[in-house]
Design a protein that fits this description.
Number of domains: 2
Distance between the termini: 63 Å
Number of strands: 8
CATH superfamily of the largest domain: Phosphoenolpyruvate-binding domains
Helix content: 40-55%
Order of helices and strands: HEHEHHEHEHEHHEHEEHHH
CATH topology of the largest domain: TIM Barrel
CATH class of the largest domain: Alpha Beta
Structural class: alpha/beta
Largest sheet: 8 strands, parallel, barrel
Number of helices: 12
Strand content: 5-15%
CATH architecture of the largest domain: Alpha-Beta Barrel
Length: 286
């Protein structure tokens, strides 16, 4: 697999015969290596790290320093996937200057582009990022950083007027220069209409099968996280159960004395064992 680039992603429209884009979240070097070896197209170093790695109840707790830390960990693996750095809450809300400065932190950490949430109200920030030569992925629909304003994690665009607003937001983001847009938590028909209206690819999460790609959280699709399973998640493994079984087996072996065994231990050569024995267990001089 060759390195995935922003222009390559921007050209990936399924209606033109391209393969759908596969994106996952990842937050560390082992996850990035696995994604790359599996042929994943994009890694989103997502603010979901707050919930699935750092133990917070929502995504609002992570800072730009947290995101840069995890972006660096992913980038050290040198994956073939395009690395997308997720701008966290309040990193692009205060001013255009602060937005560019924070995005630059993620680019310096190893991201090749950044993602931010919101529609037309984010246009000044997007335009400033593009002026700084930082590629931008948009994100509309259910935007988790707006959870309080939305009254929780609720599907968006269920009413005709709201659906039309999402289409206009998507068109505005494309016109501003976004190279792709994440569509989260919106009805299938609305996601299909947005995808048909755009020349850039859409990447869905809880947006049905008609997007130009899909994204899932690493810990969800591998079955590591099971406290809350959204409707749109498909489990491809049950790593939590396998991990618990392995850890329990390890603990049992330690307590029974079965671990470590002779082959898992280091030994003195025969001559050094004989020499060691001359001193007894107390060591030289005793």
């Amino acid at each position: 697999m060759t390195k995935v680039t922003v222009p390559a992603v921007s050209a990936r429209k399924v209606r033109d015969g391209a393969d759908a884009l596969a994106m996952i979240t990842a937050y560390d070097a082992p996850g990035a290596r696995a994604a790359s070896e599996a042929g994943i197209d994009l890694i989103l170093v997502g603010d979901s790290v707050a919930m699935v790695v750092l133990g917070y109840d929502d995504t609002l707790q992570v800072t730009i320093d947290d995101m840069a830390h995890h972006t660096r960990a992913v980038a050290r693996a040198n994956p073939d996937c395009l690395i997308v750095g997720d701008l966290p809450w309040m990193s692009y809300h205060v001013s255009v200057e602060e937005t560019v400065r924070n995005a630059a932190e993620l680019i310096r950490a190893g991201a090749q582009c950044v993602k931010l949430e919101g529609g037309r109200k984010r246009l000044p920030m997007i335009e400033a990022l593009l002026d700084a030569e930082i590629p931008v992925m948009g994100h509309i629909g259910l935007t988790p950083q707006s959870m309080h304003a939305m009254g929780g994690f609720k599907v968006q665009g269920k009413q005709a007027e709201a659906a039309l607003e999402l289409i206009e937001d998507a068109k505005a983001l494309q016109h501003a220069g976004c190279f792709s847009i994440v569509l989260e938590g919106i009805p299938v028909r609305v996601a299909e209409a947005i995808t048909d209206a755009l020349e850039i690819p859409t990447i869905g999460i809880g947006a049905g099968p008609h997007c130009d790609g899909q994204v899932l959280v690493y810990h969800d699709l591998l079955g590591i996280e099971d406290r809350f399973v959204p409707k749109f998640v498909r489990r491809y493994a049950d790593f939590k159960a396998a991990t618990i079984d392995a850890l329990a087996a390890y603990a049992a072996d330690v307590r029974s004395g079965a671990f470590p065994n002779d082959e898992e231990s280091y030994h003195l050569s025969d001559d050094q064992a004989d020499a060691f024995g001359l001193y007894g267990s107390g060591g030289p001089g005793e």
